[in-house]
């Protein structure tokens, strides 16, 4: 294990590491050997290092590290830089610049799995770990500076100088004087996965005994066919599903029917509003060539308009243009409930058996903390005799509650409450978390809500499921069908303490490795205190048109790769003379798993402005 130490003042820290089993130390300082040797304890520490087999180097500039090592010796497993400073009375701006150049230089000599340790005095870093915390503009902004070089903060802990044998800090204002390290913090950085720049994607499936291809809406390209629920998956969403199923099978005869579920539906939705649906067109012939995709398909993003027939009425419902073939209208499934309905109508439903369906569902939504354009839905359906449906609902919910409690207790000691509430006690927008339509199913009767008694991320009363009942007279006048739908993604988040739904979809192996197969654990974030950036955009709305806010949010999701965490309307103005309306929105950008720099966000914002002008026909201000 090769360890590089930078900016050593008297080499006492390096000497404390020397001799550790399996560690090769390279200790450096910025000054010359003559300048350093006169400092207290420096000569003794240098002697100990050399006798212990360490390498000692002088006059090393931390911003040009690759210049000091041959290519075969440039890979270090760990780099330490304790209390960096430009010297004398340098301000925060100069020290930010030093850190920025240091991180860029370190990226050239660090192994892929390596770590960078930076110790700072209390308050300098600017993270919530600093107590008291400085104002952001008066700090060194270390997480934002590191992000510029592709690093994320993966750990932060106290720098306990008293536990380091022989260590004595020095260098106060470039002198051989100590400084206060009480409350100092050690910041541990690791490499981030690169930001994804997703190319258009054609997906091929078998539909109605025919192989067909369709273009995946750009906002969903990295979420199609991820296989979270497949047999070989150790994703927590699958673990939650399997454990819930196992628990419920002890109370009900159970039958899984996931095998026959298609990603696509076809045709009209019987007058239901289409604004939440991802539409697409099938291509039974050969898929487009790469050149065709790069020339034309890159802009084929599904907005709240229908991609192939862009006009909608004032309510956001579809107006089909002449020449659009209804036989080619397909949409990504927004719920699994219609599949249950179809099974019932085919007469293949077994009364008294709990039928279970699960899989990803898709629907457009505004950007909010718990609004997911894709999530894994789990649907339970049971046929019972008329008049017994309420007892069946209570029995089903009680068993779901016990199962979730059982899962939660294996992970966390926080108190968990699950409630069955009348639908009237929730806002109607809660429906969007489960289905974009209710085709031939009765209205929602109950919501299943969860509360976790902690000051953490979970808002009290988070809705994780719905319960409905329906009658099918043509099948049986004596049977009532009970439907329950659960959001597996939200359940996994609440049980495992995952504060951001986007983390479920990360491709970073540091997420999956925390969940060995069949186990649920409290999630420990590998990207702490990620920086956030705010940009405003204002524009004139086209005359006579209603502004499509859902399309606005969908474009933001697409151009940022889900890096926009909040969109707020901060100003609305109507010009008295002309009646023109101007809107101003504030966008907050933040990544939960990757390094996101100011430059990255500036490019996203420019693309966003371009796309809303092109797609929503607004006039930018």
From TrEMBL:
**Pfam families per UniProt:** BMT5-like, FDX-ACB
GO function terms (MF aspect): ATP binding; phenylalanine-tRNA ligase activity; rRNA (uridine-N3-)-methyltransferase activity
Please tell me whether the keyword S-adenosyl-L-methionine is annotated for this protein.
no
Write out the GO biological process terms. rRNA base methylation; translation
EC number(s) on record? Answer: 6.1.1.20
Q: What's in the keyword line of the UniProt record?
A: Aminoacyl-tRNA synthetase, ATP-binding, Ligase, Mitochondrion, Nucleotide-binding, Protein biosynthesis, Transit peptide
Question: What SMART domains does the database record attribute to this sequence?
Answer: FDX-ACB
The FDX-ACB domain, residue ranges: 528-621
Family, according to the entry, reads as follows: Belongs to the class-II aminoacyl-tRNA synthetase family.
| Entry protein name | phenylalanine--tRNA ligase
In its UniProt entry, the species of origin is given as Aramus guarauna
- From which lineage does this chain's organism come? Eukaryota, Metazoa, Chordata, Craniata, Vertebrata
Its gene is: Fdxacb1
